[in-house]
């Protein structure tokens, strides 16, 4: 027996940073189901293969690991490839350049996927792993998520008098990505 991966397997492993059925993901999924939302998992063909998809209302939910997706990292130089650690995404002290480049790439890929989804008329919600830590914070995050989804569903039933609101939403687009 050997634990070596074939090049093909390794490629598959390296190119899929989005692990399936992670603990945070299962947690969010169970919560939403209990709260009465019905969704699909890993819908192929959508940019970034969102973790949870509520197709009817075009809501795509990503549950992101703070390390791999570079939560809250900052870029003092303004260069997207030049990032420094945050409290929940600590870039390792060894092979720092490798990890910096990798996380920066993941962040750029995420941004592109969210952008493409929005272009397709989807709302993107991101739940960060660190928001699910600790009972109180977890509850708060999950309740906020349900509230956000409910608002989006209600909004989708509004009549044609939405022009002004749409403008406001566009102005707040940056924060819209998250809960
Ligand atoms: Zn985080």
How does the helix and strand content classify structurally? alpha+beta
**Segments where pLDDT lies below 50 for 5+ residues?**
10-15, 168-176
* Strand order in space, largest sheet: 1-2-3-4
Helix proportion of residues, in percent? Answer: 40-55%
Oligomer: single chain
- Report the biggest beta sheet as strand number plus sense, adding barrel if it closes: 4 strands, mixed
Give average pLDDT, whole number: 84
- What is the level-2 CATH architecture name? 3-Layer(aba) Sandwich
CATH class: Alpha Beta
Distance, first to last CA: 46 Å
Give me some keywords for this one.
alpha+beta, binds zinc ion, Endonuclease, Chain A, 179 residues, globular
